[in-house]
Amino acid sequence: MAKLKLPVPPIPPQLKPLPKRPGKVYGPQTPLEHAGEAAATAVGWIDERTSLSGAARWMMFRKVPKGTNWFYTLGSATMFSFLSQAVTGIFLAMYYVPSSTRAYESIRYINNDVFLGEFVHGMHKWGSSMMVILIFLHMGRTFFFGAYKYPRELNWVIGVVLLILTMTMSFTGYLLPFDQRSYWASIVGVNINGTGPLVGPYLSDFLRAGPNFGATTLSRFYAIHMLLLPGAIAALMGFHLYLVAKLGTTAPPWQRATSSEELREEQVSS
């Protein structure tokens, strides 16, 4: 049996160009209009060669179930918090030095001497807690609404992996200031990981980057926090969004499905 392929959603009427009126002079007149036409021409040139507008319409213009409410925005809020962490992390990495002798001093320099450094550092520090809270709320909503059931089981598994990666990113980032509190708290966390069955001791040695907790541990945590985890989270998040757009979202459990009158008459007559 051939698989039915849905057509690309049409362009909404609000985005279609208005018809020309007779007697009116058309074409760019002011520098701002010239700039707008140049931008539209560039976008059209790119779209003609990539056909990205079809993919954008497929992602953005789709049907949503009746009863959708603010609980469905928790996933978008989690994604926004990750983007905020990525942007602020880039600015912090411009001044941070992953060295056991200079890490704490670089954090002090960011907070006291860099323009808006304390603000950016605060956004990154408290934004990590907000991301953890949002991802727990998002997964709780998914569980209690039954959105993990067929055919969305793979999306649920990806969400669980994203939760683990988020917690790992919070753990690895906690050591980076390399003060007394983060140092001893990280030692406790690594030792707890070492008590796990089978892979626990190997995981503990991997996080310490050796038998002892020292300068190489800080470099290992920094590499995991800045390079490994953000890339993995971004890739899984993109696949997660693709499955959401492909499979759609589920209606709230209290929303009952209704059938049309024509379908009811057809069932009765048959």
TrEMBL record:
GO cellular component, one term: membrane
Keywords: Membrane, Transmembrane, Transmembrane helix
Residue intervals of the Cytochrome b/b6 N-terminal region profile domain: 42-253
Region called Disordered, residue ranges: 1-22
TM helices/strands, residue ranges: 70-97, 130-148, 154-176, 223-245
InterPro entries on file: Cyt_b/b6_N (IPR005797), Cytb/b6-like_sf (IPR027387), Cytochrome_b_N_euk/bac (IPR048259), Di-haem_cyt_TM (IPR016174)
A Pfam family assignment: Cytochrome_B
Transmembrane among keywords: yes
MF (Gene Ontology): electron transfer activity; oxidoreductase activity
Ranges annotated as biased composition (Pro residues): 7-16
This protein's name: Unannotated protein
Organism per entry: freshwater metagenome
